[in-house]
Design brief:
Structural class: mainly beta
Number of helices: 2
Largest sheet: 6 strands, mixed
Helix content: under 10%
Oligomer: single chain
Length: about 160
């Protein structure tokens, strides 16, 4: 089965490169003041005011269990458009640095390996092969489970 290819925005978390379909990206902004919200999971950093819109923000490093990293001038917030129960919502994700937009053909994407019931990899749509390296392709709407999505969206 061939996975649909297309354009992906690629970014780094640690040494790994990830990609999100470009049609899910609204904009990329530099790191800015994030207002923290008490009693939320560590990976939910809080909310930002982006031109009058309150947008919830999560740190993808923390969500993936990669450990925290001090934000610097290369740290970015990718504002993505997600479908939450049939409603479009904006959400920010903090990444180490944005790389580039790449076009990956469907023939260059493989299905992610399955590691049994104990490892949830449903948030990966595939593994793209680009310039001799592997890019982990994310389904941004499956990174959070339904409870986490509800909690993040309620921050608005």
């Amino acid at each position: 089965m061939e996975i649909a290819g297309g354009k992906f925005l690629t970014f780094l978390l640690g040494n790994e490169e990830y990609g999100i379909p470009i049609h899910k990206i609204k904009e990329i902004i530099g790191i800015m003041d994030i207002t923290s919200i008490p009693r939320t999971p560590d990976f939910i950093k809080g909310v930002i005011n982006l031109r009058g819109k309150i947008i919830p923000v999560m740190d993808l490093r923390l969500k993936f269990g990669l450990g925290g990293k001090e934000y610097n001038q290369r740290t970015c917030i990718i504002v993505v458009d997600i479908d939450y129960n049939g409603t479009r919502k904006l959400m920010g994700i903090v990444v180490d640095t944005v790389s580039e937009v790449v076009n990956i053909q469907g023939s260059e994407i493989e299905i992610p390996p399955r590691y049994g019931g104990s490892v949830d990899m449903s948030f990966l749509t595939g593994m793209g092969k680009v310039k001799g390296k592997v890019i982990l392709l994310l389904d941004i709407e499956k990174i959070l489970d339904s409870e986490e999505q509800a909690q993040l969206i309620e921050l608005k």
